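Archive entry. Fields below.
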Amino acid sequence: GQQLNQSPQSMFIQEGEDVSMNCTSSSIFNTWLWYKQDPGEGPVLLIALYKAGELTSNGRLTAQFGITRKDSFLNISASIPSDVGIYFCAGQLPQGGSEKLVFGKGTKLTVNP
Amino acid sequence: EAGVTQFPSHSVIEKGQTVTLRCDPISGHDNLYWYRRVMGKEIKFLLHFVKESKQDESGMPNNRFLAERTGGTYSTLKVQPAELEDSGVYFCASSPRRGYGTDTQYFGPGTRLTVL
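PREDICTED_STRUCTURE:
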């Protein structure tokens, strides 16, 4: 089945540093999504990408949809303590009416004040 | 507007018992999804309802899992009998309409299931 390889698995950084994480797949996707999960909560959508090559920002977050449609990255600039959490990439390839998301394993981010 | 809600937040049961998880989607959302995250692994799709119909149940692990969405509102996911490998966090998500990759899926807080 479709799988996403997300890296790194975890990151420990100092407040103010920039962060980069990425996802790759052997399959193409029509949509790439980045979610963040805080403890005890469900994933919350951060950025959605709909076109190959698209670069989108949301505040200090920037994400890109790879040209090959098989990869995406997420950058966080000037990290702050509330950026702590688990970040998931997800791909979507609607087929036969199914709009299921395929998720990566997540990147656990720790920010030291 | 209330978000997606799930009940219970935690459930601890013994192997062989039955558990029923409930999801209330955002009001008016036709699409409802169930996902599961087993410890340390990725969040995996289980099934997708459009209103009361099962659109895609390709992710359901086996016939011990039964999902329903009578009346097209809330949904239940029953595990009977539960096995140890069923432990994990079960997420429900909903989205507003039948589209193709354009409708955001809003996730609930999840139900943490522990099977002993």
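CURATOR_NOTE: The longest strand of chain A covers residues 85-92.
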